[in-house]
């Protein structure tokens, strides 16, 4: 009886070992492109951790074409205060720096979303240079500052980039010194930005194939001239139109036709 039990245990152990080995072998048979695609469904932190699995996995994550970084210090501080948030934000910035240093391929999408502090300005500058140098198609910068009047200023190199297909930025200072050259841009989303009539006009003039323009809580301009024939949709979020055309304090220029509102303070217009 004891021999029979031992025999069953050995067989069961061999069966489990065979199943585990078979599963591992199946994964290892996938080409690198499939494994990288699988990694793309993970958060970037988890994707980087896979480098410890084996020698083959060590560098696979460095070929991810989309790098998305998100960290909300206020959700994470647990009431521990400013010093804790600053320390964790610094760790987050350091993680981005190390990740970009190891990246080995052209980028399709690059996104950073965190509570911005001015002493990180040089870091964000290097990230934008990195993204531009990698020929990124989609760039998303959401840099909510901890204090007023401490927004990140978009570097001039971003205004002269014909690679962009989609561009989103919020809580940034927008002040192009020359012409805007977003010749391939199809979608543009700007949030919580204050800019002049001249700036918005240069942005639209420098985006000849723009199809969708989204403005959220933007201020400072009194004229919106959307005359580009390629633009098909204008989306306004938290945009309270108090312009009075009778006294020329504000002006809409373009063939605007209303679309059904999305909801709340979100309105769509067909241009």
Give a quick summary of the entry:
With 271 residues, the protein is α/β, with parallel strands linked by helices.
What does this structure look like?
32% of the residues lie in helices and 21% in strands. It is of the alpha/beta class. It has 2 domains: 27-64; 65-242 and 260-270. A 9-stranded mixed β-sheet has the order 1-2-3-5-7-8-10-13-12, with no helix packed on it. Residues 242-250 have low confidence and may be disordered. InterPro entries: F-box-like_dom_sf, F-box_AtFBL13-like, F-box_dom, LRR_dom_sf, LRR_FXL15/At3g58940/PEG3-like. This is F-box domain-containing protein. Residues 24-60 form the F-box domain.
Output the keywords:
13 strands, nine-stranded mixed beta sheet, alpha/beta, F-box_AtFBL13-like, 7 helices, 271 residues, two-stranded parallel sheet, 2 domains
Query: How many structural domains are formed by the residues?
Result: 2
Q: Largest sheet, if any?
A: 9 strands, mixed
- Which H/E pattern describes the elements? HHHEHHEHEEEEEHEEEEEE
Radius of gyration using CA atoms only = 25 Å
Total number of strands: 13
Distance between the termini: 84 Å
Low-confidence segments? 242-250
Order of neighbouring strands in the sheet with most strands: 1-2-3-5-7-8-10-13-12
Outline type: globular
Helix content: 25-40%
Bin the strand percentage: 15-25%
Nearest-integer average pLDDT: 82
